[in-house]
Amino acid sequence: MSGEEVWSSNEEEYIKSQTPFGNKSGYNSRTGIYHSLVKLGTKHEIPTKHDLNTANFVLSQLPHAGLAEAKIAFIDLATNKSVSYGELRQSIYSLASALFYGLEVKKGDVVFVLSPNSILYSTICLAVMSTGAVLTTANPINTVSEIAKQVRDSGAKLAISAPEELHKLVPTGVPTILTSRSSDDKILSVEELIESCYSSPEPLPRIPVTQSDTAAILYSSGTTGVSKGVVLTHANLISVIRLLLWSADVSASQDDVFLAFIPMFHIYGLVFFGFGLLCIGVTTILMKKFDFQPMLDAIQKHKVNNLPAVPPVILALVKHARKVGCDLSSLRRVGTGAAPLSKEVAQKFRKMFPWIELRQGYGLTESSGGATFFPSDKDAKAHPDACGRLLPTFFAKVVDTETGMPLPPNKEGELLFKSPTIMNGYLGNLEATTATIDAEGWLRTGDLGYIDENGCVYIVERIKELIKYNGYQVAPAELESVLLSHPLIVDAAVIPVEDEETGQIPMAYVVRADGSKLSEDQVIQFVAGQVAPYKKVRRVSFIDTIPKSAAGKILRKDLVSQSKYQLVSKL
Fold first, then answer.
1. How many degrees, rounded to 5, is the angle at CA 380 between CA 374 and CA 384?
2. At residue 251, does pLDDT exceed 80?
3. What φ, ψ does residue 51 adopt, rounded to 5°?
4. What's the pLDDT score for residue 555?
5. Residue 197: how many CA atoms within 13 Å on its side-chain side?
6. pLDDT tens per residue across span 411-428
7. Which overall architecture, per CATH, does domain 53-70+82-209 show?
8. Which of the four pLDDT bands, split at 50, 70 and 90, describes residue 69?
9. Within the chain, what is the greatest distance between any pair of CA atoms?
10. Amino acid 484: pLDDT
11. How far is CA 478 from CA 2, 226, 227, 481, 536, in A?
């Protein structure tokens, strides 16, 4: 019986058979642990071979021979350039050979990638991993100082940059090649490296890379403070790719066409588009970045039927799709993650587009992406507030935020996860690692939530202080540090303010120096000049003192309450 049949025709009986505790929640009252209600089965068992790396695993799954290799893997929406699966495989081999022999990229070297989505992105990532090197990716809209910090922190030995972003890497001094040719012929490009070895790439020697070795360092604010390097092993990535293959079995097929505007530097985009979908053999239409009207045009032109998205995109479809007269008849499924989707928006979406399945998921960079998922649309509709059930191989605990004691179904506490996908730790930051992963390997999510009697996971609010703007993580501590560097600012605190369009926006409470006439716009512009656009402070309120605890911690809840009162007063 396939996964889809299991969930659509015999859900109750299947859950009962998979749950040794006689309930549908998967909760074991003796241990306080929630178990996933679904098993992977032999077809999708996670490989136990010790010397398997992510690149070799993905390459082993790519379509082989004949028509399968001729199938298109990626189409660039802007240029209409495409690459077939056969060309993709050969490009990976060629680039890996050029990096290893020509540029002497070796096991353990860190390669920094700074690029928007492109048909070369997967090739670059998999070629880097083929050499045994470690991948680290960055948001192209990051500032020069943010990029310099990540280059230093990760210990990058080589950078690969889109031509338009090269100027941001020059101050770091790290050797850099371009993704594609530019007007400056002096700088080597990935395109040239691939062409130089394409016809007969020299095979790589046997590189002793194991599943326990580091595969990637992705940057996340996690549950505390500023951005940190999340160390992911090959075992982590292979495990999450296996989970994606399982989910595809219950919700996708090789004939599907996906649209990718989720950035591939992000764990969501990297695992989904960079690795996982290649193993399924689908075609993906790539957008450099999200743009609403081109997205609608792409869906219509390429008959896109699967759209991995984020809540602001769902809201935009609800508000504007019919006004611009687009044809979404080809769409069958829309997934959403990276931030909570409100019940109201979900209901409006389903009412407007009843033929489209809408499914929420939840995950973290620290869990290599996904942690929860709804395998069936029926399930998602029945539990519209939930963000899915635990994925196979996942265990969860809900613990009291004060005592740390495990809680039964429908009791709110901090969510903890354990799975083969959980990160190895934060790079060079033992304090943050031990604060996030306990001695038994449980990952503290920093999110307040609960699991109901049906095993559905609900996120109530964030315990951690991160702000989610358009799915991006914004750390208040980072913005506060920038604000406090202003000579006319004595103290500052940053809080999230709910926003219908973007989820949340950063708002700053600022204490001005005596006699200062500093304005809201001046504060906003000061911060904007030093951080990526998504991190900008969007609202400023001046205050006499920042409320703090006896230990000196900012009482953000007091400021959140004050901001709500101010908003109501204005209304």
1. 130
2. no
3. -95, 40
4. 80
5. 23
6. 999 999 999 999 999 999
7. 3-Layer(aba) Sandwich (3.40)
8. confident
9. 76
10. 86
11. 47, 6, 8, 5, 11
Residue 516 tokens read as: 């200062």
pLDDT range class, residue 8, cuts 50, 70, 90: very low
The dihedral through the CA atoms of 528, 534, 539, 545 has a sign that is negative
3-state helix, strand, coil in the chain (%, to 5): 35, 25, 40
Sort strands 467-469 and 33-35 into parallel, antiparallel or unpaired: unpaired
Name the DSSP letter for residue 456: B
Check: CB of residue 288 under 8 Å from CB of residue 78. Answer: yes
For residue 276, give both structure tokens.
Answer: 């996982």
pLDDT reading at 389 higher than 90: yes
Report pTM: 0.82
Residue 514's alpha-carbon distances to 25, 489, 490, 518, 521, in angstroms, are: 58, 9, 9, 10, 19
In sequence order, the β-bridge partners of residue 360 are 336
Sequence ranges of the domains in the chain = 53-70+82-209, 467-570
Write out the two tokens for 114: 């700074």
DSSP state letters, 86-107: HHHHHHHHHHHHIIIIIS---T
**Residue 306: beta bridge partners?**
258, 333
Orientation angle between helical segments 520-528 and 476-484, nearest 10 degrees? 110
Quote the strand ranges of 37-130, DSSP E: 72-76, 82-84, 110-114
**CATH code for the part of the protein at 467-570:** 3.30.300.30
